[in-house]
């Protein structure tokens, strides 16, 4: 099953919730992971980093 493309606005909103103290670090990390942060960063870096 294909994942939807990451939405940078949603990723930023999750980060900002953490910065304002509205979300715990664990919850924001979960949101960023499920929101496709890795895919987004790989696109910005111009490659497919594999671990």
Keywords:
elongated; 51 residues; 3 helices; mainly alpha
What does this structure look like?
The two termini are 21 Å apart. The chain is mostly helical. It has helices spanning 8-19, 25-34, 37-45. 61% of the residues lie in helices and 0% in strands. The protein contains 3 helices and no strands. The mean pLDDT is 91.
Quick gist of this model?
The protein has helices spanning 8-19, 25-34, 37-45.
Task: Provide the fold topology.
Layout: H1 8-19, H2 25-34, H3 37-45
Helix pairs in contact: 1-2
Quick check: average pLDDT?
91
Cα end-to-end separation: 21 Å
Low-confidence stretches: none
- Alpha-beta classification: mainly alpha
Radius of gyration: 12 Å
Could you state the order of secondary-structure elements as H and E? HHH
Strand content: under 5%
The description of the largest β-sheet is: none
Number of strands: 0
Q: Percent of residues in helical segments?
A: 55-70%
Q: Which word captures the global form?
A: elongated
The number of helical elements comes to 3
């Amino acid at each position: 099953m294909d994942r939807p493309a990451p939405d940078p606005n949603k990723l930023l909103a999750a980060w900002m919730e953490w910065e304002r103290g509205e979300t715990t670090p664990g919850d924001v990390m979960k949101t960023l992971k499920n929101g496709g942060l890795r895919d987004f960063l790989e696109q910005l870096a111009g490659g497919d980093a594999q671990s």
